[in-house]
Every structure is written in C-alpha cells, then in structure tokens.
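Work Package 3 (structural annotation) set out to generate three-dimensional models for the target panel prioritized at the project kickoff. During this period the team completed the workflow that converts sequence records into discrete structure tokens, so that structures can be stored uniformly alongside our sequence database. As a representative example, we reproduce one entry of 432 residues exactly as it appears in the project archive.
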Amino acid sequence: MNRGTIIRKKQIKYINEDDYNRIFVISDLHGNYELFLKFIKKVNLQKDDLLINLGDSCDRGTQSYELYLKYDEMIKEGYNILHILGNHEDMLLTAVYTLDYDRLEHWFRNSGEKTIESFKKVTGLSVEDFFDLKKNKFLIDFLSSFSTLIVSDKTIFTHAAYNPDLLPEEQEEYFLIWNRENFWDRNKTGKSIYFGHTPSKKEDHTIVYYPNNCTCIDLGTYRYNKMGGIEIKNKEEYYIEILYQGDNKSRFVLGEVTGSNPLICFGINPSNAKLIDGRLQTDKTIEKIKSIADMENYDGWIMLNLYAQVTSKPNNLDRILNNSLHSKNIDEIEKILNRFPNSDILACWGNCIEKRMYLKYCLKGLKINKSINNYIFLDEIKDIKGIISLTKGREWFYRGMITKKGHPNHQVRTKQSAKLEKFNIKKYIKNL
C-alpha cells in the first residue's frame, strides 16, 4: 500500500451498533494467543456481541497463525468478529505479494520471522511455502479481507490514526495504518475514535484516554504480557495479564491476573513453571492453584514463595540463606501486595518449611539476639525481614487440612473438593 493512496470504499466497513448487545474493542495482540483465549472467557463473549480487533495480531509473539485460525473458527461458528488491517498485517501482505528484498527486510526487522515460525509449526510447511500464494492461501486471503476502517454513526475504529479533517472515504490508507501524529487534538467529527498502534506509556500499561473522545487500546502486549479491552457501550475495561519475574535460577513472581482481586498463594520455593516467549509453562502445583482460583471466583492467581530459589527438589535448597536472594524476594512480594491491597492469601507450603532452618525466618523474620545458639544457616549475620511483616490486615487461608506437624498443606496433596478455611497466621507464627 503506497503512501497517499486514497482508501477504497470496499475497505470501509459500516456497522449499526444497535445490531449488537455489546461491542468489545481490542488491539495489537502480536501473537499472544493465550491472552486472547483468556479475554473472551473473561468477558463471556456471546454470539449477539461484536468483537472488533484494531489490528496487528501477527509478529513478535509466538502464536500469530493460531490467532488467525481462532478468529476464522469463531466467525464460522457464528461469532461477530471484525479485524482491521494493522501495519504488521500490511508488512506481511506486502512482503508476500512483492517478494521485494527491502520490504522483506523491513518486515523481518519487525519480527516477521515469528509469524513464519508459527505458520511452520501449525501447518508443517516450510519457509518457502509461506510465500507460496496457494500453500498459504488461508492466511493471505484472510488478511486480505480485513477492513482498513470501521465506521458507525457514533464511532470510528482505526488501527493507527484518523484524519478528522477528511471524510471516511477520503482517508489515506498509509495514514490510517501507520501514522503516529496527535490527531485527537482536532477531532471535531462528533464521534468517538478507537485506535491502537502506539503502546500505552502509562506506568501500569492501561488503556489511554486522549482528549476529544479518542482512546488507545494498545498496551504493548508483546512486551508486558498484558492485553486490555473495552466494551464501548458501558465503557467497562477488561485486562488480562501474565506476571513473571525470574529466570532459570530464581523466580519471584508468577501469575495470571484478570482483575483487582487475585488469590495470592505462598509456597516454599518455585519449581519449573515459568513464562517462555509469552506462553505460560505450568507444573502440577500451578495447575492446582489455577483451578482453585477459578473455583473460588478470584480474578486470577499469583504464586509467591518463602524462598525464591528454583528447584524441583526441596532437598536441593541452599544449605544457608542467600540474603541477597531473600531481600530481592521481599522487594518483589511487597510490590505485589501493594498492587493488590485487598487480595486474600493462601498458605500452602506444607512440611517443606522444615527442610531448612532459615525458611521459617523468611516467613516470620529474625532479629539477631542471644536466643539463637548459632547462625550457621545464614550467609551473613544480619536481621531477616519476614514476609509476615508485609501482610498486616490480610485474610489468610489454608485448604484441605493442617498437617500433623502443624503446617498448611501443600495444594498438590489436597482434594479438588476442599474449601478455603481461615488460617490463624498469628497463632501459627507464634508457635513456628
């Protein structure tokens, strides 16, 4: 698509908002298939609703092809889904249709290879097949069918920008798909404008409301593992976020959050669950925590630990406390607790808390004094800040049972039918 090209009328989709019960707007998922699935589950998308995607479902993430297949599947099932052509779809189609070296290089610089890898993984075909108009017919035809602009009597939906000085039929394609100027300053159309393309610069990566009823839905999903959407009739916002702070040696935070009230869980140490290329890799513990959060109607879950060392075998935990690791863990836990000030806490560390002497102090804290005969479990003789000092006023729970040694049971060992019960954390700490 050349700069200055006037939009073709067939690329404008006109809609009547009264034809739909609810209208959801999302944008710039960039291959994050799992977040999309969680979003449509969160909003309970129905066939009398309309879902408008403002573009850029491909590149950067690992499951672009899967996203387009899912949209197509849902459309065939009777769901109302409209997808606008974003600049990344524009780059893809331009690369395929022209095979021009400079256009290909431009697309690859913007992570186009990730979309090709997704295509290869799903279809079993090759890189060369991706550029074959027959072998890649579904994707090419599907993207070529996307509108460049969606318009109702109340609202304008575009990928990047809109020129308020021109009628819809007079808009330039390149401007709609690529431009980043502050067009909202002169929005005198009398309509709301929803767009994506330019990621939110807000510290919490939420939807941005510009002057004159202009709203940006791009949250930088590929970078922050967070997507947002808005239902334009009641203006309700929805967010889906995967939290991850860690690496192969230590993990401080892991979670999936869909609102302001997730269930915060404390285990002993993290195992192999992690986030890889935007995809959550779970283990038995995380799968159980996820099911508990769903069953108890929490806005997702967050898994924290008394000690942040990654090991699938508690016997391999550090023999002495790594104070730097613990301090970092305390800092990240405090951030989570401050962000979700009203969330309940599930204690689920089991008897593993007795594996190392320092673990109980990670929880309750330690003031260096003469009541302890030796400090061989510390890497340096200094006070330990306890997690419990950060949780004042919180409701603590356990689930299943208290072990014979008096500890809240590990959740892998509890029955699915078990219920949350209040845990007297003060009494527990006193006897620990």
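Residues 342 and 393 are 9 Å apart (CA to CA).
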